[in-house]
Amino acid sequence: MNMQAQLCSYAGVMSSTASDPLSCKEIITGNGVFFSKVAWHGTYFDVSLTDGEKFWYQAGVLPPQNHAFSPQKWLQHAKEALFDLVDCHRSFQYEVDVEDRRAQLEWTSTYENGRSFVCTCNLELVEDSIASIRSLMSLLCSSCRVFKVSMSQIHADHIALKGLLEKAQHAQRMLLESNTNREQEILTKCSLLLNSKKKRIKELSVELEAAGAEVDRLKNQLTYIQVLEKSPSSSAAVDYLVATTEDEEFTDAAEPLHKEETNRIRRSVAEVADGYKDEDADMPDKTTEATATRAKCSNQQDVGMSCSGPADLLEDLGF
């Protein structure tokens, strides 16, 4: 009989452990220690304890070199290595068939991180069934230190990694938001600058149009000045300016000059007429002569001759 068989025989176990340690088909020894897998490797035993989360603890216990091995001593070492008394939250349900010496034990384990699992153990008992079950229940309640520490460490690592991940995601979001806000800010500034340039272009267009009108006005003024320089008192120059310019300002300025020239001519004609009147006043008999002259002129006009006097001159001039 090999060491594993001897151990199981000493413990009073009638069946061997299931090949799959994750199946949770446990065996129970006489002193209440339970294992999910017991394997003899020639110089030491592997004891694996599994929970539904696929975590298990392995303890290699080296037997004495002389192979004077005491299964009871080995079980005590394994018990000390695996099951220190630590508070543990577990709930149990079990059924016991005393005649067949079989028991089914089901429990739920909940650890500090909130994770839990349910495991069912099919047991074959050789001692008092109730006592064995009670012993096992007591042991389970005080033997979760290894799992608790492992799960707590895993939970702490998970929280740390989750925190780092959240920080990285937050940094990524901030970077994306920063880039988006920066791009939006640049687009807004470009849009405002473009609108400002468009407005300035319109203003420059208006200024350019006004400048063109000013150039035309200055050209007309230059022409007016040049004409006046050549003939400052000529009514023809004034007429030319009035006829050639479309600028109301200079047209209005030229009209008084035109009127002034016309009035000057009228005054000259009036002076000539006044001279003739003075001569008629100095010679009273001139009335008869004037009458004769008119008759003569009338006769001359009848025969196609021309005759003119001061009155005729005024009439011809439109006075």
Automatic annotation (TrEMBL):
This is DNA repair protein XRCC4. InterPro entries: DNA_repair_prot_XRCC4. Keywords: Coiled coil. GO terms for molecular function: DNA binding. One of its GO terms (biological process) is double-strand break repair via nonhomologous end joining. GO terms for cellular component: DNA ligase IV complex; DNA-dependent protein kinase-DNA ligase 4 complex. Residues 194-221 form a coiled coil.
